[in-house]
Automatic annotation (TrEMBL):
Superkingdom assignment: Bacteria
High-level lineage: Bacteria, Candidatus Eiseniibacteriota
Alcohol dehydrogenase-like N-terminal domain: residues covered: 28-154
Name of the protein in its database record: Zinc-dependent alcohol dehydrogenase family protein
Stored NCBIfam families: adh_fam_2
GO CC terms: cytoplasm
SUPFAM superfamilies: GroES-like (SSF50129), NAD(P)-binding Rossmann-fold domains (SSF51735)
Cross-referenced PROSITE patterns: ADH_ZINC
Cofactor: Zn(2+)
GO molecular function: alcohol dehydrogenase (NAD+) activity; zinc ion binding
A Pfam match: ADH_N
Keywords: Metal-binding, Oxidoreductase, Zinc
InterPro entries reported for this sequence: ADH-like_N (IPR013154), ADH_Zn_CS (IPR002328), ADH_Zn_typ-2 (IPR014187), GroES-like_sf (IPR011032), NAD(P)-bd_dom_sf (IPR036291)
């Protein structure tokens, strides 16, 4: 008899998730099956459920911050790279049963389009995303492409590692883009201390704050108006200042990173940065950006977005945090309470990140 496992799937937009029993899937060529230990709850999941990202394959199992053990390995096929300039990590080391891995948002890329060929696979024309185009981690098992998994050390607690797979990765990509857009960095990205504003102090910002502070930068945390608990949390992690998102920081920022999906924060952040500063929009979805005067963009200020991630981002990020005592703050929920976790995320009631912990399977 085939084993079964429980999944929570989205069957229609703006509706509660539905608990279903499915057969445990078998991995195909170049794939692995993963027994899930933990899956983070990301704001992208909320955007998908709300129909704000409406190209999901329905029904779909949400979740793309997955940590688990390789349970089965599919057959290996040869993959001919289209260009010798492709990053070497495209093939990666072979995965074995028992390996602990992380599965991110980026689930597959074609390797042949113009973006893939110039090391911009995050913009691949045919990219497949976990928990959006293919089933993700709100389940007890999932299937992933071997070459798109990241190794997760056995010493890491899976519930604390899960938020690193998107909140950490996207935050780090936004951080790197912010630094590299500013004058004064050499080829290695080193520079004097910068003032970085983080708008929306949730899962991504609380991880990134620790990385930036470790690198010697000043962090200014902006929360929902009146969120004193969130501001205190930011200060506990070492923020130089914390206040409402509508407040003017005590000093002009070098860069502002927006994790809150609120378009009106773009002109607010532009007013908070110095000449030549950058505003980085790190979310996959944002409410409409209101019109603003050219004067607050002038003087070589920039606004740009972050889209998805590359595997190179992941490699750099996990190498980086191996040297930093990053502490992820998590609140755990059983699989059946995913809707509650999503609503707590929406309301801003979480301190850090929500993580689902699946239960048993049946024969």
């Amino acid at each position: 008899m085939k084993r079964t496992h429980r999944v929570l799937q989205l069957e229609s937009y703006r509706s509660p998730l539905v608990l279903r029993e499915r057969r445990v899937p078998d991995p195909g060529p170049d794939q692995v099956r993963i027994r899930i230990e933990a899956c983070g709850v990301c704001r992208t999941d909320l955007h998908v459920r709300d129909g704000e990202l409406d190209e999901a394959r329905l029904p779909i199992v949400l979740g793309h911050e997955i940590v688990g053990r390789v349970d089965a390995v599919g057959p290996v096929s040869e993959r001919t790279m289209p260009d010798a300039s492709q990053p070497a990590d495209d093939t990666g080391p072979a995965l074995r049963v028992g390996d602990r891995v992380g599965v991110p948002w980026l689930g597959w890329t074609c390797g042949a389009c113009a973006f893939c060929r110039r090391d911009e696979e995050n913009l691949c024309d045919r990219a497949v995303f976990t928990g959006y185009h293919r089933d993700g981690g709100y389940a007890e098992y999932t299937i992933a492409e071997s070459a798109y998994c990241f190794p997760v050390p056995d010493t890491m607690d899976p519930t604390h590692a899960a938020p690193l797979l998107c909140a950490g990765l996207i935050g780090y990509r936004a951080y790197r883009l912010a630094r590299h857009s500013l004058r004064g960095f050499d080829g290695a990205g080193e520079a004097p201390s910068l003032r970085l504003g983080l708008y929306g102090f949730g899962a991504a910002a609380h991880i990134l704050a620790q990385v930036a502070i470790h690198d010697g930068h000043e962090v200014y945390a902006f929360t929902r108006p009146g969120d004193g608990a969130g501001q205190e949390f930011a200060k506990e992690l070492g923020a130089a200042w914390a206040g409402d998102s509508t407040a003017t920081p005590p000093s002009p920022l070098d860069a502002a990173l927006l994790f809150a999906p609120v378009g009106s924060l773009v002109p607010t952040a532009l007013r908070a940065i110095r000449k030549g500063g950058s505003v980085i929009c790190a979310g996959i979805h944002m409410s409409e950006i209101p019109a603003f005067p050219y004067a607050i963009l002038w003087e070589e200020r920039t606004v740009r977005s972050v889209a998805n991630l590359t595997r190179r981002d992941g490699t750099h990020f996990f190498e980086k945090i191996a040297t930093i005592p990053v502490r992820t703050e998590v609140e755990t929920f059983p699989l059946e309470q995913a809707d509650e976790a999503l609503e707590r995320l929406r309301s801003g009631a979480l301190r850090g990140a929500a993580v689902l912990v699946p239960g048993r399977t049946t024969d």
